[in-house]
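Weekly sync, protein design subgroup
Attendees: M.S., D.O., the rotation student, P.L. (late)

Item 1: inverse folding check
M.S. brought a backbone from last month's batch and wanted to see whether the design step gives back something sensible before we order anything. D.O. pointed out we never logged the input encoding, so this time it goes straight into the notes. Structure tokens as presented (122 positions):
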């Protein structure tokens, strides 16, 4: 099993090197610059991402341990929910609003930029 893993690893490395050489010979200088910048950006971001992932994982584990210690055992009774009955004398409603809708004001439209419409609208 160890030998198979080593052979497969060498095959993957050989494939990657061959692909890199092929792409390097066929791309323009500008494209290689963009590709190199992207690879360097990813390489610079990886350590920070790994450190952040480790920190968040440790914090989550610590929080889980603290909540497990501080959580009281579950009671056998369901939670009690109290619903208040409606009031016997409802408060007076505000009657100051209008009962009829306001009269509609005719709207005027102006079409800009079409000479054919301007001659027909008169």
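Designed sequence read out in the meeting:
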């Amino acid at each position: 099993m160890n030998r198979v893993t080593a052979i497969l690893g060498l095959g993957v490395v050989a494939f990657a090197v061959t692909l890199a050489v092929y792409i390097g010979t066929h791309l323009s200088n500008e494209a290689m610059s963009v590709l190199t910048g992207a690879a360097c950006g990813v390489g610079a971001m990886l350590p920070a991402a790994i450190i952040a992932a480790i920190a968040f994982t440790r914090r989550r584990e610590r929080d889980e341990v603290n909540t497990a210690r501080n959580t009281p055992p579950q009671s056998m009774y369901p939670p009690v929910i109290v619903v208040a009955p409606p009031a016997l004398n409802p408060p007076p409603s505000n009657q100051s609003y209008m009962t009829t809708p306001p009269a509609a004001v005719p709207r005027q439209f102006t079409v800009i930029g079409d000479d054919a419409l301007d001659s027909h609208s008169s």
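Discussion: The helical segments are 2-26, 29-70, 115-120. The chain has a mean pLDDT of 80.
Action: P.L. to compare against the previous round before Friday.
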